[in-house]
Design goal:
Layout (H helix, E strand, L loop, with lengths): L1 E10 L2 E9 L2 E5 L2 E3 L7 H13 L2 E13 L7 E12 L13 E6 L8 E2 L3 H7 L7 E5 L6
Parallel strand pairs: 1-6, 3-8, 5-9
Antiparallel strand pairs: 1-2, 1-4, 2-3, 2-7, 5-6
Length: about 140
Protein backbone atom coordinates (compact mmCIF):
# COMPACT_ATOMS: atom_id res chain seq x y z
CA UNK A 1 0.00 0.00 0.00
CA UNK A 2 1.28 3.44 -0.92
CA UNK A 3 1.01 6.37 1.47
CA UNK A 4 0.02 9.85 0.27
CA UNK A 5 0.19 12.89 2.55
CA UNK A 6 -1.80 15.99 1.62
CA UNK A 7 -2.73 19.41 2.93
CA UNK A 8 -6.16 20.95 3.46
CA UNK A 9 -5.10 24.59 3.20
CA UNK A 10 -8.06 26.89 3.84
CA UNK A 11 -7.94 30.66 3.53
CA UNK A 12 -10.93 33.01 3.46
CA UNK A 13 -13.40 30.09 3.39
CA UNK A 14 -11.67 28.63 0.29
CA UNK A 15 -9.55 25.48 0.01
CA UNK A 16 -6.48 25.17 -2.20
CA UNK A 17 -6.78 22.45 -4.86
CA UNK A 18 -4.91 21.38 -7.95
CA UNK A 19 -6.82 20.68 -11.16
CA UNK A 20 -5.89 17.71 -13.34
CA UNK A 21 -7.43 16.55 -16.60
CA UNK A 22 -7.68 12.80 -17.20
CA UNK A 23 -9.32 11.55 -20.40
CA UNK A 24 -10.93 14.95 -20.85
CA UNK A 25 -12.43 14.99 -17.35
CA UNK A 26 -11.49 17.36 -14.53
CA UNK A 27 -10.27 15.89 -11.25
CA UNK A 28 -9.34 18.10 -8.30
CA UNK A 29 -6.80 17.04 -5.68
CA UNK A 30 -5.37 18.40 -2.48
CA UNK A 31 -1.72 19.44 -2.69
CA UNK A 32 0.53 16.63 -1.56
CA UNK A 33 2.08 13.43 -2.75
CA UNK A 34 3.73 10.16 -2.03
CA UNK A 35 6.14 9.60 0.80
CA UNK A 36 9.75 9.30 -0.37
CA UNK A 37 12.58 7.57 1.43
CA UNK A 38 14.23 10.97 2.05
CA UNK A 39 11.19 12.26 3.94
CA UNK A 40 11.46 11.97 7.69
CA UNK A 41 7.72 12.23 8.34
CA UNK A 42 4.30 12.65 6.76
CA UNK A 43 4.39 16.33 7.66
CA UNK A 44 7.75 16.68 5.90
CA UNK A 45 6.23 15.04 2.81
CA UNK A 46 3.47 17.68 2.75
CA UNK A 47 6.00 20.49 3.13
CA UNK A 48 8.24 19.10 0.37
CA UNK A 49 5.36 18.54 -2.06
CA UNK A 50 3.90 22.02 -1.49
CA UNK A 51 7.30 23.61 -2.13
CA UNK A 52 8.11 21.46 -5.18
CA UNK A 53 4.71 21.61 -6.90
CA UNK A 54 3.45 25.04 -5.83
CA UNK A 55 6.42 27.03 -4.50
CA UNK A 56 4.79 27.64 -1.13
CA UNK A 57 6.14 27.15 2.36
CA UNK A 58 3.60 25.68 4.79
CA UNK A 59 3.31 24.83 8.47
CA UNK A 60 1.56 21.50 8.85
CA UNK A 61 -0.70 21.01 11.88
CA UNK A 62 -3.08 18.24 12.94
CA UNK A 63 -4.01 15.14 11.00
CA UNK A 64 -7.66 15.66 10.04
CA UNK A 65 -8.72 12.68 7.96
CA UNK A 66 -7.20 9.44 6.76
CA UNK A 67 -8.59 6.64 4.67
CA UNK A 68 -7.84 4.12 1.95
CA UNK A 69 -8.59 4.29 -1.75
CA UNK A 70 -8.60 1.05 -3.72
CA UNK A 71 -9.06 1.57 -7.45
CA UNK A 72 -9.22 -1.30 -9.94
CA UNK A 73 -5.86 -2.19 -11.49
CA UNK A 74 -3.97 0.14 -9.11
CA UNK A 75 -2.11 -0.24 -5.84
CA UNK A 76 -4.15 0.81 -2.79
CA UNK A 77 -3.31 4.22 -1.30
CA UNK A 78 -3.60 5.37 2.31
CA UNK A 79 -4.40 9.10 2.27
CA UNK A 80 -3.37 11.18 5.30
CA UNK A 81 -4.76 14.71 5.15
CA UNK A 82 -3.45 17.42 7.45
CA UNK A 83 -4.52 20.94 8.27
CA UNK A 84 -2.01 23.75 8.05
CA UNK A 85 -1.25 27.32 7.09
CA UNK A 86 0.69 29.01 4.32
CA UNK A 87 3.81 30.72 5.61
CA UNK A 88 5.25 32.13 2.42
CA UNK A 89 4.69 32.33 -1.32
CA UNK A 90 1.78 32.36 -3.72
CA UNK A 91 0.82 28.98 -5.21
CA UNK A 92 2.12 28.70 -8.77
CA UNK A 93 2.36 25.37 -10.58
CA UNK A 94 5.82 23.99 -11.28
CA UNK A 95 5.42 21.77 -14.38
CA UNK A 96 8.67 19.94 -13.54
CA UNK A 97 6.98 18.47 -10.46
CA UNK A 98 3.29 18.20 -11.35
CA UNK A 99 0.99 17.45 -14.26
CA UNK A 100 -1.73 19.66 -12.74
CA UNK A 101 -3.25 22.18 -15.16
CA UNK A 102 -4.02 24.96 -12.71
CA UNK A 103 -4.44 26.03 -9.11
CA UNK A 104 -8.01 26.37 -7.82
CA UNK A 105 -9.26 28.13 -4.69
CA UNK A 106 -12.65 26.46 -4.20
CA UNK A 107 -15.22 27.56 -1.62
CA UNK A 108 -15.17 24.93 1.13
CA UNK A 109 -18.94 24.45 0.92
CA UNK A 110 -18.53 23.37 -2.74
CA UNK A 111 -16.22 20.43 -1.93
CA UNK A 112 -19.03 17.90 -2.14
CA UNK A 113 -19.98 19.06 -5.64
CA UNK A 114 -16.69 18.38 -7.43
CA UNK A 115 -14.76 15.26 -8.44
CA UNK A 116 -12.16 15.27 -5.65
CA UNK A 117 -9.37 12.74 -5.22
CA UNK A 118 -9.53 11.34 -2.64
CA UNK A 119 -13.29 11.66 -2.19
CA UNK A 120 -13.21 13.34 1.23
CA UNK A 121 -14.93 16.65 0.48
CA UNK A 122 -17.86 16.09 2.84
CA UNK A 123 -15.53 15.08 5.67
CA UNK A 124 -13.14 17.99 5.18
CA UNK A 125 -15.92 20.55 5.05
CA UNK A 126 -16.91 19.42 8.55
CA UNK A 127 -13.49 18.63 10.09
CA UNK A 128 -11.09 21.48 9.36
CA UNK A 129 -11.94 23.53 12.45
CA UNK A 130 -11.83 20.67 14.97
CA UNK A 131 -8.27 20.32 16.29
CA UNK A 132 -6.85 17.03 17.53
CA UNK A 133 -9.72 14.92 16.22
CA UNK A 134 -8.75 12.44 13.52
CA UNK A 135 -11.36 10.70 11.44
CA UNK A 136 -10.34 7.33 10.03
CA UNK A 137 -12.68 6.67 7.15
CA UNK A 138 -11.58 3.15 6.34
CA UNK A 139 -12.22 2.54 2.67
CA UNK A 140 -13.06 5.72 0.77
CA UNK A 141 -15.59 5.17 -2.00
CA UNK A 142 -13.87 6.67 -5.02
CA UNK A 143 -15.21 6.86 -8.55
CA UNK A 144 -12.63 7.11 -11.27
CA UNK A 145 -12.90 7.94 -14.91
Amino acid sequence: MKIRAALALIEDEKILLMEYVYDGKIVLALPGGGVESSDSSLRRTVQRECMEELGISVAVSSLLVCGEVQLPQKEAVLHCIFGGIRLQGAPVLNPEHTSAQRVVWLPVQALEQVHLYPNVGAHLANRTDIPNVVVYLGRIEQQWL
